[in-house]
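dumping this here before i forget
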Amino acid sequence: MMCYPPTPPFSIFMCPHPFLPNFQACHAHSLHPLVYNKSRSLSLRKHQFVGENAAMISMGCLTGFWIIALLTLHGSDVGESKGNSLNEPDIPFPPARPTPQNLAAICHQGQGRPRYPASFFSRSGGSRYRRLGNTINRLESWYRSCCSEQESQILCCTTQAWKETLSQFCVEEYSTKTLAYECCEGRGDARWICFNSELPNPDYNPTLGYTAPAVPPQPEFTFNASAC
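structure:
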């Protein structure tokens, strides 16, 4: 749809130029009153018709402009969200603290939860995500070790493994020049409460159809049974 400015009404009768003689006579006296009034009425109606159409066209153009603007903004948002989903690996973090309710899943469904080998990450950047992935790999390895302990000590062992893993994660966070993970700023119970909040997988549920790949061996975890 093309948008044009409104045009003035068309003249029905041709008269001399305003600066030529008899111009007023042409408009005031030469035309019969009935003809003059009729032509004036037609001119006014035509002017009103043109004005209304110009207004409708202007409104249509304005509406079309806003529709295009909104679609453009929506497209930019979609494009931005796709970029984030491609650039930021999906790593469920932080891991939940072991409890009597999720302990069975920790020990029996570990192979159905994600692992993060080096091939999972892009070569450029993403050091924070590598630390997150390595932390999960270490914790799952230590959970497997704890689940071989006596049943009465499994919960204590997995809890120690959880705290030690996250403590090492915080040490790694502070060894970089970037801002450390917010929960690492806490001390004592405040740190563990922070890590155990806003959990992506509090029940340690497995991913349907997923089998964990092999990852490099992790340092052995030393369980302190006397601290239970």
